[in-house]
Write a structure and sequence with these properties.
single chain; about 325 residues; mainly alpha; two-stranded antiparallel ribbon; 11 helices; about 70% helix; about 5% strand
């Protein structure tokens, strides 16, 4: 029986609810004791967990938002880079076969296509490494990590690193928005070409009007203005639209456009998730400061009283009788 109950008083703990038996044992008032040791923080006593509890605890530490953003970024970059690389190769073959007869007319386009293919290799490598780093950052900053390890820890270096990743991801999202818009240009070109071919198929009974329907690659900057023939008209254009190379190139550009959109969505999602994690970590730091102040206040009051803090009010109604 506690000494405070003999004196018809009840013990008050200003630090909040007790989280463990060890904590309750440290804050209890022992009979005949003149002073007690000040605890430095709540002691965590975990029972023996089974396989299911361990699995649930491990799954609770997975940053699912960062994992979804990483998978979206991987799939979008793979779709964009793979389809764009093959589509550029097929585009060079179409230009060489149907729109230009002289090598000097499309040699510049061939060099540009080769340059873009090397850029695609660099983009794939960069985003692969960057997504891995973002996933690791998600594991570091996720709120589930605090529940798993039971203690919040944050350093100035970690906070600066997290802020840097937020800024970098935001800048990449803005730059990738330009890539997303640029990837729509070949889709627009092939869409116009497909619409012209559909019109030619409808007007097959009037050959005179069919020959006036053309697609000029020089208007889109693919060939110089002195390239011969530089355009395809009438039945020739309809034949191009029915080839396997044209259909595959059109589908590849559509897939690359979709991949660029998925990558943009992943970057925006990751940027928002990192920003929300920063807000959550700021709240944790504020809460940790408040708890530290509570511990200091408790220690000062306990030293001033020379023992355990007790309430001047009775524990229950039976103590007043």
């Amino acid at each position: 029986m506690h000494c405070c109950r003999n004196r018809k008083r009840v013990e008050i703990d200003i630090r909040g609810p007790k989280t463990s038996c060890a904590y309750h044992h440290q804050t209890s008032c022992r009979a005949g004791s003149s002073s007690s040791k000040l605890p430095t923080g709540p002691e965590l006593i975990l029972p023996d967990m089974g396989c299911y509890d361990c699995c649930m605890r491990c799954l609770g530490g997975v940053p699912y938002c960062s994992l979804v953003a990483t998978l979206l970024c991987f799939s979008g970059i793979a779709l964009f880079c793979g389809c764009t690389h093959q589509a550029l190769t097929e585009t060079e073959r179409l230009i060489e076969t149907y729109f230009a007869r002289n090598l000097q007319d499309y040699i510049t386009l061939a060099y540009i296509i080769q340059y873009f293919q090397y850029v695609i290799y660099g983009l794939a490598t960069f985003f692969f490494v960057y997504c891995i780093i973002l996933l690791a950052e998600g594991f570091y900053t996720t709120s589930a990590a605090k529940q798993t390890f039971g203690e919040f820890r944050s350093t100035m270096c970690g906070r600066c690193l997290s802020s840097s990743f937020i800024v970098m991801t935001y800048v990449l999202a803005v730059l990738w928005l330009l890539v997303f818009a640029f990837s729509a240009l070949p889709v627009h070109f092939f869409y116009n070409m497909d619409a012209t071919c559909h019109t030619i198929d409808v007007l097959t009974e009037t050959p005179a009007s069919i020959n006036q329907l053309c697609v000029d690659a020089r208007q889109y900057g693919l060939l110089p203005w002195n390239a011969v023939p530089g355009k395809a008209c009438g039945i020739t254009l309809s034949t191009i639209c029915k080839t396997r190379e044209y259909q595959m190139t059109y589908d590849l550009y559509i897939a690359a456009f979709a991949g660029a959109g998925i990558t943009l969505l992943a970057l925006v999602h990751c940027s928002l998730h990192l920003a929300l994690n920063q807000v959550y970590l700021r709240k944790l730091r504020k809460r940790a400061k408040e708890e530290r102040r509570g511990y200091d206040l408790y220690g000062r009051l306990q030293r001033d009283r020379g023992g355990t803090l007790c309430s001047p009010y009775p524990a229950n109604m039976s103590d007043t009788s």
